[in-house]
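LOG
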Amino acid sequence: MKWKHFPFLIVFSLSQNSPLLAQLIPDSEDLERGTDNGTPLPTSDNDDNSLGYTGSRLRQEDFPPRIVEHPSDLIVSKGEPATLNCKAEGRPTPTIEWYKGGERVETDKDDSRSHRMLLPSGSLFFLRIVHGRKSRPDEGVYICVARNYLGEAVSHNASLEVAILRDDFRQNPSDVMVAVGEPAVMECQPPRGHPEPTISWKKDGSPLDDRDERIT
């Protein structure tokens, strides 16, 4: 950081819906006197201008991040891939990080062996969902956070749940013999699972029409 003197006034403009703007205006008094008594202004020696300065003034086109695509809730099977979407705008282009339960999510940017990948768009991609009886590292509530030097933006919460379906039916249907015209009941209870499984019936390989008044 170095300081330079110029016969200019720096004027800041700030409103609720606009970013901080800075403008340099010649100081008429200094120009008339021909002296250099301007307010010292900061300049940056950083090549990438990551602090948002160009020469001795703030970049007027910069603005803080905002989320333009929020992640949505997901229910996915164990071992399957999944994606939590997130997209943000801002200038400079914001960096995006993900958090689960308040803890920062480790991705391939931190460890190349990670099964979670931070995509260029900012979305979080899971090569496979890891879920076991004792360890459930991927299930939980996620947010994405976009940041640049002007501030940060936080997405809506998005939950990732792992779908589970046991192998065995709790009750299988059995043969029933009834007289013509009499009602018949075929009982069935699906396997336990999350979300709760639903049941559909087939007869001779074809789905039954639930609009048939004889079937309830």
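LOG (cont.) second protein
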Amino acid sequence: MTKPFTVRVSARWRAVAAALILLALPGTAHGADTPTSTDLPDLTGVRSKIYAERYSEAVEELTALTTTVQHADLYNLLAFSLRNLERYDEAAKWYREALYYDPDHKGALEYQGELFLKLGQTERAKVNAQKLNFLCPDGCDELNALNLAIAEAEGTLGELPSGDSPRSALSR
């Protein structure tokens, strides 16, 4: 009687094979808790409305898009427009949604921080600034803008030494 041929595969090789199979599966490139975004349509027209401070028109157009598009940039623009219309509760919802789809969205972190300042929640704005400081170790416009807004809210803007940037002064 002959014995069946068996191959002994080490646990290490099984793990490598499993990893390769997982990488080959569609849709597994995203983190387990980060939802998949849909393609973002051209928002040039909406951005023009926002730059022209026609926020109500932008909100109308962006809200219609939320029924078919899931994207952090869309939600961030909608929240920005709502915040400028002083519709803070709605803006907060859409900033949360933007950060759900992209937790490192620098624009959403900056603007949500500015919303926190409008609501008198300076400590929460500082948390966003700390995250931006982590994301932008060499500085970035979003971090600088939020740090300036925090300094203005705290009344410390005039206390910056000459030549000192808002980033260096507020990140000490």
